[in-house]
Design a protein that fits this description.
The chain is mainly alpha-helical. 75% of the residues lie in helices and 0% in strands.
Length: 100
Amino acid sequence: MEEKCPCTHRTKQRPEEELRALKNRLSRIEGQIRGLSRMVDENAYCTDIITQTSAVTAALNAFTRELLSAHIRTCVTEDLRQGKAETAEELVETLNKLMK
């Protein structure tokens, strides 16, 4: 029997492994942001701060990709199987926001 998607369109019970992976990524990003703040406080050279900012942006993009992949594999797939075509439009809107 197929496992039902644990999302309700406004909340989602994530499997422990997924939750742990997302939280770990966020903790690393949080550390990078604190590092950026320290760099500014310590008058670091502009290009050094910009380089670190680029690393933070890449880390956020990786987090977003991971979350989006899980969303498509679970919530979107299950909704489409149930005939909820509006979920496809919601996904398109989300992707449009990401690609601004």
